[in-house]
Amino acid sequence: MVRNSRTARNPDAELAYGLLRATLGLNILMHGLARLLGGTGTFARTLVPMFAKTPLPSWSVYIFGLALPFIETLLGILLLVGLKTRWALVGGCGLLFVLTFGSSLRQDWEITALQLIYTVVYTALLAGIRWNWHSMDTLLQRPSDDCAPCSGAAGSTEGYS
């Protein structure tokens, strides 16, 4: 997160951002954990018949089903605590791109609409990343060595990246 003198703090926007990011993180984390606790093989096997009438080979659906719970769990944790937030949001959008592709192949338009809503939340968070104040990213920020404006701003986050 980059702050400079042109970016004034807005505590309400920062709180709203943190709450939305954490809620999305919890949602995605619970998707992944539920599938991990139920067994990744069990989850992957349930996907294969769902994609039987698509051009995707069953082995690729199965492998994706094995990986998905781990990806969701990782993204969920990162978003919940606000660590590597930008990359987690971009990764989440990429995951939704792949999920939407699969749902579109199945012509499951209700699921693709839901995935579009998730994508809107991910992209809104990405667009508003400057408000990611209540996060591990902010706690771990350090002034860079080449940041002249930071040198006189003790306790400020201006210029930190």
Question: What characteristics describe this protein?
Answer:
161 residues, mainly alpha, elongated
Describe, in plain words, how this protein is organized in 3D.
The protein is mainly alpha-helical and 161 residues long. The chain is built from six helices and no strands. It has one domain. Helix content is 66%, strand content 0%. The longest helix is centred in the first third of the chain and has 28 residues, at 11-38.
SSE diagram, text form:
Layout: H1 11-38, H2 40-50, H3 58-81, H4 85-105, H5 109-127, H6 136-139
| Share of residues in helices | 55-70%
Rounded to an integer in angstroms, the radius of gyration calculated over CA atoms is 19 Å
Shape: elongated
Biggest beta sheet attributes: none
Work out the count of structural domains: 1
Structural class: mainly alpha
Q: What is the number of helices?
A: 6
Number of strands: 0
| Oligomeric state of this protein | single chain
Distance between the termini: 5 Å
The chain-level mean pLDDT equals 88
Concise summary:
It is built from six helices and no strands.
